[in-house]
Amino acid sequence: MKRGFLNGSKAKSRPLGPALDGAASTNNQNHAPKKFERLPIGKQEKLDLTLPEGYKNEAQYLERDPMGGSMPDAMTYTTVPFGGPRNDDDPSCECLFHPGSKEVLLKIPGFPRPLKHPATPGFRIAKIPGKGTGLVSKRALKAGDLILSERPLVAWAQGMPIPFPATFTRQQCIQYQLQETEKMREVSFKRMRPRDKEAYMALWNCHKEDGSGPLTGIARTNSVALEGLRPGVNDESADYCATCKLISRLNHSCSPNTFPRFDIPSFSYRLYAVRDIAEGEELTFQYTHVVNATAKRQEALKPYDFTCSCTACKDPGSDKRRAAISYFSQTDGVLLTGSCLNETTFAQCEKQYKRIVQEGLEHLPEYFDIMQLLMQGCIGFGDAKGASEWAAKLDKCYWDEKCDSEKLDDLLDPESPAYQKHSLWRVLVDAGIPGKPVGMSQMLKQFAAMAGPGKSTMLPGGGAIVNVISPSIEADRVKVPIWKSPLTSSLVSQLYSLVLMALIEVIANDRLGRKVRVKCSPDDTVGDLKKLIAAQTGTDHTKIQLKKWYTIYKDHITLSDYEIHDGMSLEMY
Ligand SMILES: C[S@@+](CC[C@H](N)C(=O)[O-])C[C@H]1O[C@@H](n2cnc3c(N)ncnc32)[C@H](O)[C@@H]1O
């Protein structure tokens, strides 16, 4: 499962989930996988491979001294805790790391720290009709309750540095990748304790006939995304997939009621309830991006050999609500901040919150974001009671990495003096009620604050160019026009919509068939567009060339002069 399972697009709402031990979306294309490319999602066509004579995988895999660090250019086998388990009950995890990952852990004082267990376990293992084994709540759980903590059995690099014979087709490369991956994992497996080996081999495997070996098949069925350990390799494919004895038994739901958050210092997952759960209810997780429409979700779940029959899959109104959730978080929601809400946009945020709850999508980052906005809006309107109710909900979102209880502490009591001192206190009442003017400089400051340090340029004469980098849309760019008259708060929110509408989306295709989608303004120059592409791909913008047929686009010419329009595809070299 790539619960948060590794479905590969936006880290923000990345599903965990089994099966996705490899998230390349390019598996149908006829090119060799790149150096760290993950194994593609889904079942593969099994092929008999004959290697070219004398061909050998030269990649280096080292079993190092337990306290030693990584070697450049070599993968490292290691056990957490380093040096092996400290006693029989100490959970251990066998790892295959990229260079640099082990160093991240060596720097953490007291690594690995003890696991944080709930006072009483919140689950039991049970047979679930039609789903095999699963987990069920042992007692009534509240949103934010810790259900269990678990160190994975294995944490393996998803993309391995496997060189491919030049004569191989893409499908042959994938088969070779499966075979070589299995060999590397066998070394790791041999290092495990007998009872951990047994627990691993007892897990479900839906990749028995596609050329995946047993270790890889089980990892592809059960692994959970593990991020944040790849300082040496600037490539998403260099993330890890972890397989657990318990969490890997969670079955899928499109409205999951749990989320496993990985805690690096203790090298363990903490499984939280994301809403109230009744005693005896099945505990579930998402295997794929659940904001997608039903048909798309069912397609993505095919490799797991089941058809999802959860409430959302059967509710004809669900797709529309999920599309509205997605649309809001990628458009209006991106630009709104607590200090620029008004009655209308606040009401839109409330609707977004209700849709998320109705769809049972509390595990998504969007749930935390919208509640934060609503809390800030209440502060801006001078409503401490309303704000404290949102603060109390936010304070329980332990599964979300943005949850910071210390910051919320002061806001739990509506009588707290922290409200009067808050930088947003009554800003919407004092400066932004409909009809009251909001200064140009105030609006620009809001845009600049959204963009973050160094992302905006104030223009002489009163305009600004702001690059808004939001977690959900990675490189959106907003041009704030020169605005001479004072603005009311409702004009400001209209302006946000206008700015969004004015943006076009251009698709840059590279030679390997990968697509980079960029939102930009028709007034942008080709040079600007290259910078936006570079911001998404992590490449140097001066090295990018954009073409369409025989036209090589020149940096100083605008997109509208080249008649580049919304939805147009360009070739990128
Ligand atoms: C990661 S395993 C989950 C644990 C598994 N049920 C077991 O017995 O070990 C994934 C497999 O569980 C089953 N499964 C998961 N979610 C399901 C669902 N919503 N409906 C039916 N089967 C499901 C499928 O067989 C899937 O391939």
From TrEMBL:
SUPFAM superfamilies linked: SET domain (SSF82199), Ubiquitin-like (SSF54236)
Domain Ubiquitin-like: 504-573
Keywords on record: Ubl conjugation pathway
Record Pfam families: SET (PF00856)
CDD domains linked: SET_SMYD, Ubl_UBL5
Region (Disordered): 1-43
Keyword NAD appears in the UniProt entry: no
Gene3D superfamilies found in the cross-reference section: Phosphatidylinositol 3-kinase Catalytic Subunit, Chain A, domain 1 (3.10.20.90), SET domain (2.170.270.10)
Bias kind Basic and acidic residues: ranges: 34-43
Domain SET: 121-288
Descriptive protein name: Ubiquitin-like modifier HUB1
Organism encoding this protein: Favolaschia claudopus
Lineage, broadest ranks: Eukaryota, Fungi, Dikarya, Basidiomycota, Agaricomycotina
